[in-house]
TrEMBL record:
Pfam families: OmpW (PF03922). It comes from the Bacteria. This is OmpW family protein. InterPro entries: OMP/PagP_B-barrel, OMPW. Residues 1-21 form the signal peptide. PANTHER family: OUTER MEMBRANE PROTEIN W, PTHR36920. Keywords: Signal.
Amino acid sequence: MKKTLLAVAALCVLSSGAALAQQAEGPWMVRARVVNLDSANKDSTPLGLTVNDKTIPEVDITYFFNKNIAAELILTVPQKHTLRAGGAAIGTLKHLPPTLTVQYHFDVAGFKPYVGAGLNYTRFSGVHLPAGVDIDRNSFGPALQAGVDIPLSKNLYLNFDVKKVYIKTDVSAGGAKLGTFKVDPVLVGVGLGWRF
């Protein structure tokens, strides 16, 4: 009986300690990442359009509904790209691609891998193209995500993240649609996260 009581007491202490540790983390997490944007450059127009790849800053805000389910808002600043046709630069544009994903987080030997899916909205602005050539300014598309948070110290994590985001725009010349240009980038990022 005494051993049983001790075991129950020990279990209660461990459970309360785990609960306090989880409570201490809090439901919010903010990450800052450096991300490499690698464009798919799929073009159905006769122009052979491409945009340049680049490294961009990224910040995300995550809210944990419980230890497994979270929602993440992914943000950056407007990114300027050179638009090329057949390899020759024909103009520039900026895109702002906020993305919202819902994630499932695992806990594997202290590591915290996750997968996510959601919606991207991209707004094209600062479009400078030859006279008569234009693009649709808005894009909606799905986004897929996988990553891992690796604990470094209390509430501080090293983050690795990969996303596939579907971004496209209709291209027109003289008011007639030429086709669709799909950027559809893969974004590979590394950064730090703070849970509070």
